[in-house]
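Instructor's aside before we start: the two examples that follow are unrelated to each other. I chose them only because their records fit on one page, so don't look for a connection. First example below.
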Amino acid sequence: MIEAIENPQSPNRQGADPLTIEQMLTYFKVPAVSAAVIHDFKLDWAKAWGIADVETGEKATERTLFQAASISKPVAAMASLKAIQDGHFGLDQDIGTILKSWTLPDHPFEGRAPVTPRTLLSHTSGTGDGFGFPGYEPNTPLPTIQQILDGNGPGCRGPVRLVRPPLTQFHYSGGGSMIQQLALTDAVGRPYRDLLKEWVLDPIGMDESSIDLPLAEPIEARTTRAHDGWGRAMNVKYHIYPESAAAALWTTPADLAKLAIEVQRTLAGKSTRVLSKATMQEMVTPVGVGPYAVGFAIARTGEGWYFSHGGGNWGFKCRLVAHRAKGYGAAVMTNGDNGESLVNEVIDRVARAYGWDTLDKPTLR
C-alpha cells in the first residue's frame, strides 16, 4: 500500500515511520483525498480517504465527485481535436475564420503568425490574461462566454486580449481556452456540453463526470464541499464555473484515469474510440514554445516522458499524470485549498511503490 512507502521529502521526523494517508490529511489540513492508479494500461485501483464535507461528516468514497478545475482543459482539447479530425476546422486555421458569434479584437501584431486552435490550446496564442477564474456562488447571475471574453459580464475579471504575437512566449491562459470553446461551438453549431458528452465522456466511459449547470440531483448528491487552507468549510458548498472548457468539470480520479488510459491506448495503437493515433499525437507533442502540447503539459522526469495537468479551483486541488508510453499513471483529487502538497506526496508515493522511471536518473554518455 502507498501508505507504507517511505519518502525522504515527506513530512516525517528523521528515522520515523512514514505518515499514513489519514495522518497526512491532518498534517496538511485537507479533509479528503481520492486517488486512482493506472498500471499496464488499466485502472489498477481507486480509493478515497477522509471527509467529503466537514459540516455533515460524510465520508469520501471512490465515487465522490471533486472539481477537476483546470484538468477540464485537456478534456476540452480532446473535444476540439475530435472536431478537427471530423473536418469542422483546422488545427492551424486562423481563429478569426472559425469564430462567428464573437470577434477577437484587433491587435498591433499584423503580419505575424495567426491565433489558431493549436496556439490557444497550448497557451502560446499571446492572450495575456493573468487572472484565474474565481467561480460564482450558486444562484448568482452568470456571464455568457462573450461577456467572459470581453470582461464586462457579472463578476468578470477582465477582458481576454492579445498582448504579444502568437508563438513568441508561453503564458498560461484560461481565457484562451474559452476562445477555443466558443470557436468549437460556433463551428459545429451545438452546445459544448453535448459535444463533450457525446464525443469524449461517453466513448471513454467517464460516467461519473459532468459539466452541467446546475448538476443533476444524482450527481449533486455525491459532490464534495470546498474547504479552506485550514480544512474549514467555506461560506457556500462550492463555486460554480460558467467557464466550462477551462474549469467546470466535476469528476472522480477513476474517470480521470480513464481519460489518461484512452490517450495511452490510442498512442499505442490499441484504441480509436475518440481520436486516431495521428490526431492523439498532438496532445503529447509540444508545439515548440513552452512545455505544452495541445491540452497537456509534457515533461521528462528521470528517463520517462509524462503528460500531465494540474487543477486548482476555490477549495479544490488535483493533478493527473501519466507516462507517454509505458501505461502507468495516477490521478489525485482533494477538497481543500491546501491540497497541492498532499497531491504531490501521494503521486510521489505511487511512483515509488510502482517503480516508475521518474526515479531513474538520465544515463550520461
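Example two begins here.
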Amino acid sequence: MPDGETKEPQWGEGTEFRMVRRGRHKVVIFRGAPRLAFDLVDDPGEQHNLLGATGGLPAAVGDLLRWAGESIDFDQAEHERTVRDGSLRKQYAQATDDRSGNLFHMPNGTAVNADDTLYHPEIVATDGENLFGPDWRNQNPTR
C-alpha cells in the first residue's frame, strides 16, 4: 500500500497529513482539515472528494480511512518534533521576522527570501553580519 506523510506543519497549523493509496483509491487525512478520498481511475485529477459525494462509499475507501487513522498519531508526532527541535530556534535564531527560514545569501551580504521569485526578491537583510553574526563570512567561505 503506497503511502506518504508529513509530520511537519509546512503549510500552517494542522496541515500535517497521512496519505494512503490502494489500487484506484487514495485517502488523505490531515491533523486539522477535512479528510479527502479520491477514485484515481474516474478522477485522476483529484477534483471530486468522495467523502462529500452522495451515495455510499466503496468499502475500500472505508478501509483506507480506518488504516490511515490508526497508522499515525499526530499528537505524538508533534510531541516528538517539539522535543527534537525545541532548542533549535533559540540556538539558530536569526535577526529577522518569521517570514521564512529559507534564505539565500547573496555574495554582497544581502539575504533574500529564497521562496520569492528570482527576479524580484524581497530583501530580508542587507548585512550578513547583522543577520548571522560576526562569523558569517567564515561560515560561508565562498562569499
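The longest helix spans residues 59-70.
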